[in-house]
Amino acid sequence: MDKSFVVTEDRRFTKVEEQMIWQKPASHKTSQEELRIATEIKNNWLDPEMKIMNILLEGDAGSGKTQLARALSADLHLPYTKVTCFADMDKTDVFGALLPVVTTDENEDQELLEAIYQTDSLQSVLSLIETHFQIDANQAKERLSKLIERIDQREQSSNIDYKFYPSEIVRAMQKGYLLEIQEPTVIRDASVLVALNSALEPNGLLNIPTGIIRRHSDCVVVITTNRNYQGNRPLNESLRDRVQHAEKMDLPSIEVMIERAIAKTDFMARDYLEIMAKIIRLLDETAKANAIKGVAGMRSYFFWVNSLKQGQDPLESMFPKVLYKLTTDETELQILQTALEQSGFLRELQQVKNQQKLQQGRKISQAEADRRNIVEEAESATLKNESLAEDQEKENAATETIESASAEEKNKEPLDIPTEGKTSASEAKSTTASLAEEDKIGSAMSLDELAEMDKEKRKALNRAVREVLKETIHAKEGTILHRPKITETDLEQGQILTQKVLPEVESLSRVINDLLDKEISNDFSNGSYYGARFNSSHVAYGDLRNFDKKNPPNDQPSLALAVRVDESGSMLRDDRMTTAKLAAVALSLFAEKTQIPLMLYGDSADLSQREKTSIYSYKEFDDSYDFMAAKIATMKPRQNNRDGVPLRLLAEKLNQQNADTKVLLSISDGQPKALPDYTGEKAKKDIQTVLNDYQRQGILFIACAIGEDKEQLRTLYGENNFVDISDITTLPQQLLRLIARFI
């Protein structure tokens, strides 16, 4: 043990007092504050005028105040004891009280009782008895039992004597201990601690009913208190003036936080520890700036890291370990989550998580692989597909003529395949044909240039898909992302779709753009969670957006939209696919005219025994709107559907958008079903996992049901995430109005 700061070299302690001297655990990291205080006390210990005996540690919960007080007990080699103050504390709690006298049959019982007074649980009592009397656990229980019997017998006697028992404060000052007084600012009666003023003097005195107690020369008092917390009051000025040294306790630096977390939890991944420490500091600063009363401190950090060590997802465990300790108020949580999103720390944490998963990987047993007829790993298969992209596209084109007739298709009766499902002669035309400028829909690219650009982009998108789906139930089944290959026929079909929805789109977009222009030009924008003035007209909405705030010149309502279209075989019925195409074109035109970031995916499970999921990327957030209607025209009913894959992919990319509102729209006509076993409870659990993962991050899911499985989808997605569109002929108009509500 380091004896650099010991001030009691010549002093003898009892067995109990020796046990009261704190022993630093291996996880303890000496702070600069500890070194500074211990040095000050040691250097001035023998100076009667400048002796430092009263310390004030003021700071947030979890900043290490109590840990520092205990560490000083070890450094100075003084027995440690503490008193935790409470609101109704009075002078009897400071000085002591008259209590019944318990006579003992053995002289050692008094020493045993003193030891018991210092513990706070039965297990601690038994442990202390074992150590104090050098006996085993059974003997300790027997000794305690006999003592209780004697006390009971004495209480039953008619003669009861009373004795003044001093408080822990008096005992510590009389015997020369290091005394921690916790949270004195919560005491309602400000005069209570003023009673200690005389005792805090270097040669202080305490006047108690049994006489005058002089403060022991070795007694060190450490006052620990929080700053500006609910129920706290300012520390009495006269008491504060008697403090010889004060420290402002804040969260330590990032590096110190990391070192303490490693020592405390034995978790060594510094990339995780660094970003988690940054998140803790950001939440702490945001909470203070917005008068949020909770605390994000070292305790939250340690337990959050420990949950990660035990295998929990840090993005999920952040809520119970950190955020909900700060607040459970929805408005305040929104403020904290917005700060996290704007900082980019959540994306960094997700990237660290993805890197760890990439290094660790996941394997299934050979028996399971044989049962599911898996002969190669999904990643190898996908890489192979990338290297043989042209062959894969030819194979897909060949199988598309029979996709919709699959006997496996959602346990429904066989369907007749119309000419839309077959490869027509016009679709086989050269994609390099010359196009009129109006046919290019504003694009200066040829179809060949578009195809070449998509070929390069597809590789990067497939790599991103594999990263997102690693460690999910879809990893082994394999997922391939395609970019639509359009022809002149698709351009013609796209123009037809556009003409059908354009009047409705132009009418609604004019209204929305007018509203946005007015919103930007106003001095105040309304409908905010917090702001400069109260707007009573919004109270009836119940959405807590009851304030107006100053509107900067570049501040306007912000929305990002991701759309998923189910391309399963059942979409062939009742012109569902045609209606879905019209809705997709309407949404894309509306998004372009109102400058809403848009992402559009279609999906289907391939017609094969493995049933790899195919994702059709019609538009990424960073894509232009060139040839948009023509791309959508390539949509068609294909095979089964594995909903969890497109929902997770879209939600992950949507989560990276910087927008006030993030909406994921799923247009589907049936329940998820794909080989080998993606259906029922397994599919439901997977979809609800995606919803839970991303709803907490601010994404709003809306399932638009257009088939006979509406009630099943309502149960699957939840009442709050479900819209019943019974009349599919009005699907485009209904979706446009639905999205307009979020702007």
TrEMBL record:
Pfam family name, one: AAA_5
Compositionally biased spans, kind Low complexity: 422-435
VWFA domain segment(s): 560-739
InterPro entries: ATPase_dyneun-rel_AAA, NorD/CobT, P-loop_NTPase, VWF_A, vWFA_dom_sf
Cross-referenced PROSITE patterns: VWFA
SUPFAM superfamilies listed in its UniProt record: P-loop containing nucleoside triphosphate hydrolases (SSF52540), vWA-like (SSF53300)
Cross-referenced Gene3D superfamilies: P-loop containing nucleotide triphosphate hydrolases, von Willebrand factor, type A domain
One term of GO molecular function: ATP binding
Region named Disordered: 379-440
Database matches in PANTHER family: NORD PROTEIN
Protein name in the entry: AAA family ATPase
Species the sequence originates in: Enterococcus dongliensis
Higher taxonomy: Bacteria, Bacillati, Bacillota, Bacilli, Lactobacillales
